[in-house]
Amino acid sequence: MKKIILIAIALSLSVLLASASAQTQSKIGMKKAKEIASQQVAGKIKSSELEKEHGKLIYSFDILNSKGTITEVNIDAYTGAVVAVQEENEQTEAAERQAEKAEKKKGKNQ
Question: Do the domain assignments include residue 12?
């Protein structure tokens, strides 16, 4: 029984340490994120921001592509991994605005 308790404590500590380590990990920076985004979609970056989306800190870029539409590229702020690439349209823009409003409202209520 003592072994099980010790194992549970050790697992809990390792999860806590991993979580703390992820929070103190340094970001890749806007410049590096722009380079990664530009490799994903050719075009002119119209806007960029560092934001928290779905609990993850990301760099988000709106890129005017060769078709004349906007492609959004999201880059993980810590690893530099491409999180999402999606072409924007009126529906996705409206859904994104509504999700941002809900997130802000949720933040105010906490």
Answer: no
